[in-house]
Amino acid sequence: MLFSSCEDDDEESLEGTFYGPVVAVGQGNARTWVTTDEAGTPTSLGVTFSEQAINSTGLGNAMRMYTLALPAQAEETLYDHVMLDWNPQGHEPIPLYGVPHFDLHFYTISEAQVAAIQGQVEMDEMPAEQFRPTNYILTPGVVPGMGAHWVDITDINNSPGNFAKTFIYGSHDGNFIFHEPMFTLDFLNTLPTVGTQTMSIPQPAAYQQPGLYPQRYSYSYNSTTKEYTISLLDLTEKD
């Protein structure tokens, strides 16, 4: 009698959505997440926070900063960690951004490296032209513990009285170090539904380091779970 055996050559799928640790924010909470394909390659990532987290009474009238760790499955992305900032009085320049809003920094460098950034009034060293995203300009100065900021001059949100949401690049000493969706409390209170607030991210002609770069980003509100999600989408390999 002959016996035959077969072996399943199919590898276990690594596809899924994985979450970082929950962090208390205001009267609610927030956490990061990453979605991967069957090979385990990240395709999108972002931050989800509860409706209670954006209650302005719970957040208070002082600036607050929350560090959000990424799940292990995000190691293949560009990002090291995420920082969520609450600005109840807005920040400079006040004519543009002087309203209650959130900064959401996706940093490509470590927390220690971010903390070591020194503030300065003058312009920071600029990355080479081919690495600068289309239509973006460097704004004056460097924010301590954060970096220099680049804004899209074609985005109406970067003009006086029109700020609701925008996408900012950050740099330090000639290197881009963060991607930043920035959005107002009033905008979140419009309860953006899935698919209605998805925007393209302006890209540079070349990239300073190889990696997975988001091509779009989005805001959404889930009325069932009562959660807001800010997503970096279409992570695409760039050399």
Question: What would your notes on this structure say?
Answer:
- It is a single chain.
- By secondary structure, the protein is mainly β.
- The protein contains 4 helices and 16 strands.
- Mean pLDDT is 92; it is low at 1-9.
- Strands 1, 2, 3, 4, 12, 14 and 15 form a 7-stranded antiparallel β-sheet that branches. A 7-stranded antiparallel β-sheet has the order 5-6-7-11-10-9-8. Strands 13-16 form a two-stranded antiparallel sheet.
What's a quick, concise take on this entry?
With 239 residues, the chain is mainly beta. The protein has 4 helices and 16 strands. Strands 1, 2, 3, 4, 12, 14 and 15 form a 7-stranded antiparallel sheet that branches. It has a 7-stranded antiparallel sheet with strand order 5-6-7-11-10-9-8. It has a two-stranded antiparallel ribbon with strand order 13-16.
